[in-house]
Amino acid sequence: MARRTLPILRQLLRGSATSSPSESSPVLGLAVALKRSVTYMPRPGDGAPRPVTLIPGDGIGPLVTGAVEQIMEAMHAPVYFEKYEVHGDLTKVPEEVIDSIRKNKVCLKGGLATPVGGGVSSLNVQLRKELDLYASLVNCFNLPGLPTRHENVDIVVIRENTEGEYSGLEHEVVPGVVESLKVITKFCSERIAKYAFEYAYLNNRKKVTAVHKANIMKLADGLFLESCREVATKYPGIKYNEIIVDNCCMQLVSKPEQFDVMSVQLVESVRDRRVWAFNASGRFSVKEYLQVANSGGIAEFPRQLVTPNLYGNLVANTAAGIAGGTGVMPGGNVGADHAVFEQGASAGNVGNEKLVGQKKANPVALLLSSAMMLRHLQFPSFADRLETAVKRVILEGKYRTKDLGGVSTTQEVVDAVIAVLD
């Protein structure tokens, strides 16, 4: 059936080559265009098994990637892994690993340890640059049954992955004085902004918020904002606004009592739990918000962020913290041709020796990232099965690792997920 529909889809795409983002296909009921830069979008697949490059990594990496392998086998998922041993103390990612990812187009990886200080660069960053994985996508959301400080969190953080402070351009000017360059280009800024708006458009999200520090870094972050504003004009159906990065982080971790009145109907789900919100005329204050809430009115909250490299790292980890922790947040790094899926926040976290020895690493984040990978590979039904099983185990609460308030081992969580697979 899927093979027979491919010619029809190709014909529809050719016929809509001149369509704008806001135009809709009369047949499919959704907007299509000849070229879409978004890599992570589920589409109907042909069912053929797909090869995936697997990098277990360091520390807890082999534990959590092993959990994924077991569950994929139990589901009879149409993927098979090409495994490569890579460790963070290497000076560069081996060529055969890069070649494998280029061939397979998709990679699943555990964390790679990055030495602090010294002259060894991060292999995680190397991999992103080598494959031009320009967009980091982290979805921070509440899992049913997992108690957190805030409820109704649904935040997507889209982070530029290839430049900014992570450019790695540092040198010692004179002894005791080090200069580190932050590189921002219009090309990369426009590219990540387009990705963010395309993602919002294709996933029915209503607002994109640019995070910046242009009040201080007026040229660098100013260029980023200028690019975002230009792209925003091409998507009139998506609201756009901006927030300074320190204010964004503060709003993310605001005191819980500020949000006790959030029983109002949300047009756009809570993104950053900010003290203020936006209405048709602009920003309104806490007092005004309380009046709206108490009267049963409608308050709108943006829910998607687009950021330069460093800010995205900070914001994604902060958002993960309020939504249940880095151990449950999925994510991926995507480009025009390749995608690497890994734990969404603190992807370089490899745990500690005690956690590895006790075999109590939390596999949930990588399992959910694997569901993202399955959708990317055009296997949405397998992705749904995996997500549903993981969420059911979390909801039941019997098998949880220590970071989620339980005492279970990695294997016990894996066995529980396999037991409830539909």
TrEMBL record:
Pfam families: Iso_dh (PF00180). The keyword Ribosomal protein does not apply. Residues 51-417 form the Isopropylmalate dehydrogenase-like domain. InterPro entries: IsoPropMal-DH-like_dom. Keywords: Tricarboxylic acid cycle. GO terms for molecular function: isocitrate dehydrogenase (NAD+) activity. GO terms for cellular component: mitochondrion. It comes from the Eukaryota. SUPFAM superfamilies: Isocitrate/Isopropylmalate dehydrogenase-like. PANTHER family: DECARBOXYLATING DEHYDROGENASES-ISOCITRATE, ISOPROPYLMALATE, TARTRATE, ISOCITRATE DEHYDROGENASE [NAD] SUBUNIT BETA, MITOCHONDRIAL. This is Isopropylmalate dehydrogenase-like domain-containing protein. It comes from Tetracentron sinense (Spur-leaf).
